[in-house]
Each structure stands twice: as C-alpha cells, then as structure tokens.
Amino acid sequence: MKNFTSVYDIDNLQNIIAKALKIKENPLENPTKGKGKTIGLVFLNSSLRTRLSSQIAAQNLGLNVLVLNAAQEAWNLEFADGTVMNGDTVEHIKDAIEVLNQYCDIIAVRCFAGMKNKEDDVNESILSQFLKHAKVPVVSLESATRHPLQSLADCITITENWPFDKLKINRKPKVVLTWAPHIKPIAQAVGNSFTEWMQQMDVDFVITNPEGYDLDKNFTKETPVIHNQEQALKDADFIYVKNWSSFDDYANMPKVEGDWMLTNEKLEVTNQAKVMHCLPVRRNLELSDEVMDGKNSIIYQQAKNRIFSAQAVFSEILDELN
Ligand code: CP
C-alpha cells in the first residue's frame, strides 16, 4: 500500500479486516516493525479518537510518533498557490509538506471540508496538496470527502458482530445508514466513506435521509436512498447513525419534517439492530441516551476498533517501506 485515502487503496477488503482482527488478538505481535521510522500525525482539525488510536497503533508497531496539532500549534498555513503572503498566513502548505518529508517516513493528515467552496471540497483541495508534495506515503485521518480509517473500523465491527464465515445464517445482514439531526452543518465525509466501504462488503445496504440531504451520487451510485426512515429501518441488522449537511444545497441545512433521532421505539421494527456511530455524538439530538447506553449499541467497540484499523493500515504501509 503506497497511500491510504479511500477503500480503493486496499487490495482485498476481507484480507485487511482479517489482518486487523488478528492484530486485535495480539496488538504487540510486531513491536519492532516500525523501529527507526517516524510517522507524522498532522491535525488541521480537532480529534479525540483518530489522534489517540493512530498514536497507539503506531506505538504498537514501534514507530516514532510526531503529533502536530497544526491548527493550534503551527504557523498559520497558506493553501492557495501564487498568493502574495502579505496577510495572516505565514507558511505555505507546500513548504510545510516539504519539511515534513525531511522528518517523516509516513505522513498522516486530517483536513476536513472547509464547507465554504463546494468545488474545493469535492476536489480535496488540501489532501491533494499532501498527495502532490509528499515524498512518503500519505494516510488520510479524514479528509473533505472521506474518513477511511473510520470506515475500516466500521467494517471490522460489523464483521465481529456478523462473523460471515462462521454464521449459519444464509443471508446478508441489512445495514442502514440513517441521517440524524444536528444544530450546525456537518461535512458528508463519514456518510460518503461508510457508503463506499459498505458497497464493497457482502451486505444489503440502504441509506435513509430527509429530502434535500441525499449524499453525492458519485458516492451513493446504485445504493437505494429511502426518504422514509421507518421503512428503511425495517428488518435492519445494523444501523449507522450520522448527521451530514446538504450536498446539493451545499453545506446548508434544508428544513426537515418529522423527528429523525433514533429511539428504542424506532428499533422495534428492526432485527434487534446493532447501533453504530463514529463519535463524537450529540446526545439526545443525534442519538437518544436510551439507544446510546442501551444493549443494542456497539459504539464503544467501534471506537476501540479504530486502533486495529490504523494498525493494519500502518503495517501494510511498512511492508512497502521495509
Ligand atoms: N470518529 C472520529 O474520527 O473521532 P475524532 O473526530 O474524535 O477523531
């Protein structure tokens, strides 16, 4: 694996899930694999899980870890080419990346959608600069349109709860991605990415969201999009809860009819569905306390699997470097 920015950087999804599950059994199986090598974790946006799970994963492999909370601790970055930098920006992103090349064997970066210019976000204006200027492998820690380490952790979690090779059940699990309410516009990256990865899994996958909130068709492709949540949830085995803002009316929040927050009552039409969320979650807005803390939630298991998702990916990249 050279870079890891989407499901398309994986050769075989089932193999990497199996690898991650094996790592989970013994995370310190290869404690010197990354010895003498350095990974830089660059955060242009906030994080709890991605920052810590990536750090644990890298340390489990013996990598040196540099964490740069760039938004708070680094110089104010300029992203536009050709700019006369006589304003607030102090360092150009391409100079910063060239310097990271001197210090790191792997560069991992979190760069959310700016949510101001649709074209910039769709074209991954920041991640693309890393891919262009980095001379070492680049790992996405969530970009404008995707969150691949989260999605791999989601696939691992579904596999643990529906062990495809061991179950006698002669059907695919039904997985539903449901939109949830929020107070402010949120990017589509998690929803896009989960969609892309579910399309590669052996599952029956549907998306449900209010009118006006359909994800980018470049991600949803042939996946059914149902605007009636109750209908979509019927017989679900897994429900993935996530908010996102409008893609068509970019980064806006069109008016929504009805209550889209998942409750125990809504779970009654499901097949005792397991409930997932990438976190952070706004309780009793996106997801009710009763579901979050209830027996159907596998959300903390999902968060733990972020370690093994990252470790499997870093391990594959080290295979190329060693
Ligand atoms: N799910 C996730 O990426 O969490 P953080 O934003 O806290 O890293």
From TrEMBL:
<protein>
    <recommendedName>
        <fullName>N-succinylornithine carbamoyltransferase</fullName>
        <ecNumber>2.1.3.11</ecNumber>
    </recommendedName>
</protein>
<feature type="binding site" description="in other chain">
    <location>
        <begin position="278"/>
        <end position="279"/>
    </location>
    <ligand>
        <name>carbamoyl phosphate</name>
    </ligand>
</feature>
<dbReference type="InterPro" id="IPR006132">
    <property type="entry name" value="Asp/Orn_carbamoyltranf_P-bd"/>
</dbReference>
<feature type="domain" description="Aspartate/ornithine carbamoyltransferase carbamoyl-P binding">
    <location>
        <begin position="3"/>
        <end position="160"/>
    </location>
</feature>
<feature type="binding site">
    <location>
        <position position="142"/>
    </location>
    <ligand>
        <name>N(2)-succinyl-L-ornithine</name>
    </ligand>
</feature>
<feature type="binding site" description="in other chain">
    <location>
        <begin position="147"/>
        <end position="150"/>
    </location>
    <ligand>
        <name>carbamoyl phosphate</name>
    </ligand>
</feature>
<feature type="domain" description="Aspartate/ornithine carbamoyltransferase Asp/Orn-binding">
    <location>
        <begin position="190"/>
        <end position="315"/>
    </location>
</feature>
<comment type="subunit">
    <text>Homotrimer.</text>
</comment>
<feature type="binding site" description="in other chain">
    <location>
        <position position="306"/>
    </location>
    <ligand>
        <name>carbamoyl phosphate</name>
    </ligand>
</feature>
<dbReference type="GO" id="GO:0042450">
    <property type="term" value="P:L-arginine biosynthetic process via ornithine"/>
</dbReference>
<dbReference type="GO" id="GO:0004585">
    <property type="term" value="F:ornithine carbamoyltransferase activity"/>
</dbReference>
<feature type="binding site">
    <location>
        <position position="242"/>
    </location>
    <ligand>
        <name>N(2)-succinyl-L-ornithine</name>
    </ligand>
</feature>
<dbReference type="Pfam" id="PF00185">
    <property type="entry name" value="OTCace"/>
</dbReference>
<feature type="binding site" description="in other chain">
    <location>
        <begin position="47"/>
        <end position="50"/>
    </location>
    <ligand>
        <name>carbamoyl phosphate</name>
    </ligand>
</feature>
<comment type="pathway">
    <text>Amino-acid biosynthesis; L-arginine biosynthesis.</text>
</comment>
<comment type="similarity">
    <text>Belongs to the aspartate/ornithine carbamoyltransferase superfamily. SOTCase family.</text>
</comment>
<dbReference type="GO" id="GO:0016597">
    <property type="term" value="F:amino acid binding"/>
</dbReference>
<keyword id="KW-0808">Transferase</keyword>
<feature type="binding site">
    <location>
        <position position="75"/>
    </location>
    <ligand>
        <name>carbamoyl phosphate</name>
    </ligand>
</feature>
<dbReference type="GO" id="GO:0019240">
    <property type="term" value="P:citrulline biosynthetic process"/>
</dbReference>
<dbReference type="InterPro" id="IPR006130">
    <property type="entry name" value="Asp/Orn_carbamoylTrfase"/>
</dbReference>
<comment type="function">
    <text>Catalyzes the transfer of the carbamoyl group from carbamoyl phosphate to the delta-amino group of N(2)-succinyl-L-ornithine to produce N(2)-succinyl-L-citrulline. Is essential for arginine biosynthesis.</text>
</comment>
<dbReference type="InterPro" id="IPR036901">
    <property type="entry name" value="Asp/Orn_carbamoylTrfase_sf"/>
</dbReference>
<keyword id="KW-0055">Arginine biosynthesis</keyword>
<dbReference type="InterPro" id="IPR006131">
    <property type="entry name" value="Asp_carbamoyltransf_Asp/Orn-bd"/>
</dbReference>
<keyword id="KW-0028">Amino-acid biosynthesis</keyword>
<feature type="binding site" description="in other chain">
    <location>
        <position position="110"/>
    </location>
    <ligand>
        <name>carbamoyl phosphate</name>
    </ligand>
</feature>
<dbReference type="InterPro" id="IPR043696">
    <property type="entry name" value="ArgF'-like"/>
</dbReference>
<feature type="binding site">
    <location>
        <position position="282"/>
    </location>
    <ligand>
        <name>N(2)-succinyl-L-ornithine</name>
    </ligand>
</feature>
<feature type="binding site">
    <location>
        <position position="182"/>
    </location>
    <ligand>
        <name>N(2)-succinyl-L-ornithine</name>
    </ligand>
</feature>
<dbReference type="Pfam" id="PF02729">
    <property type="entry name" value="OTCace_N"/>
</dbReference>
